[in-house]
Amino acid sequence: MDFTFGKQYHRWLYFIGLMGIAAGLSVSKVLISIGTIWIGVNWLWEGGYSSKWRLLLARRSVLILISIFVLHLIGLLWTSDLQDGLHDVRIKLPLLIIPLVVGTSEPLNKKQFESLLILFCIGVIFASVRTYLIATGTIYKKIIDLRQASDLVPLIRLALFSALSILLFGRWFFRNTEWYIRVACVLGGLWLLCFMIYMQSLTGLVVLVASTTLIACIMTILNKRKKLFIAMMAVLVLVLSWCGFYVVRAYNDFYALRGNEIPKLYSHSVTGQAYEHSLDIPIYENGNKVMVNVCWVDLMCEWNKRSEFLFQKSRDRKGGYIAFTLTRYLASKGLSRDSIGVSKLSETEIRAIENGSTNYLDGERNPIEKRAYQVFWEMYNYFHGGDPSGSSITMRLEVISAALHNSAARPWIGSGTGSQMKTYTAYYASADTRLQEKWQWLHAHNQFLSIAVTLGIPAALFFIFSLWWPARSMRRWKSFLYVAFFVIVCLSFLDDDTLETQQGVTFYAFFNCLLLYAMPFASSRTSLEQPEENPS
Description:
The protein has about 525 residues and is an all-alpha fold. About 65% of the residues lie in helices and about 0% in strands. A two-stranded antiparallel sheet has the order 1-2. It is globular, with a radius of gyration of 27 Å. The chain starts with 6 loop residues before the first helix and ends in an 18-residue tail after the last helix. About 40% of the residues are buried.
């Protein structure tokens, strides 16, 4: 029996598989897996290997992209953890399948290509709405951290997807004249921007601002449109000024009362209990030193009268110890850490402490100001000997230090694919780290460092080459779409191990190959405005 289809049917099967990947990036790992396997099986089933071979010879950059997967495969030869190595290779299969299939297939037509971008954005909108509803309690799900509200895809990944979607909405706004499309683009872009602000996604906002700035400069130079550049820079300055105002205000709040490093110390509370003074603990709230004039007995007795969260045993709803959260909250208000201080708290403030609020101004601050204050607090605490555990910023500093050490220890071939966990554990055991054991599984949060640790510095340099050369060989540096994606993904590599998770590695492989090899002429032009169709 003949089970083969004609070329047209296989093209449709190929497109359906790409649709599954585009939609699944934000909503379903299963859909990503199905889509990736689908296009791979269809590619084998379709045949026509002679034409695919000719395309491969014409697009030798495909081999450059595939070689990143091959390097990880070779890295299994000297790994100290073969099981994790095989798991890592399985996660990185999109680096093999997607470049091979898309790189040896004919470009999509304009309608198909644009449909994939639209489908991706719809998936991002859906995931962001669901995340917002969980974060606000509209959809009930027990979370102890705002980031856990993003249950379909890690928030850091969703923020990157949102940044790319905002740029896509901007592209469609300029390329279409229909009012309803422009309105939809504005609403979609504003929603995702507000979503990132609400979720306090510092990485996403930084990536969006940095990528917008770089892309505006590049596109303006290429298109020689000074007015557009001036307009975009004006908007950018306004946004940065608005954000900067709240960052400066958060900074001033943190250092507000600084000046008297050793405050007035008291010996006993009104109940006759002794105060404790831990002057060496560098914790401040709104400039007030937290761990001085603390009467633990008074705090416990008065708190237990007003809350069901027992002082000596309970954690707040964010996972912190109630005793520590209460102490910081009282210090933020300048109240004594004793029974009198607790008695001055309102019922609303008691509930806020139970919910994990450590500063009375949290309810008044917008998400940017709140996140900025948190960063200042974490950094000051860390550089003055505090525990970095649980802090996204300071834990990064610890794991980056571990990555640099491990990379220097084996600079040429690294520790092998899948062996990062063991190398980090060995380093932490010998380095007297302040990072708690439950957080020592974290990787470098930098893709270039991760590859250097795993496969060596030469492999990391080759990875950088693989980012630049394919775009040069395919002449994509003048494409707005490719530059937008490239800037965003490279910024993500600086702040995250993007290729160490299924959604991250598929995002990179899918969009990189889609924009290198599947983008039609009508969508690849430099200008944001609607181009003419390819005359050929």
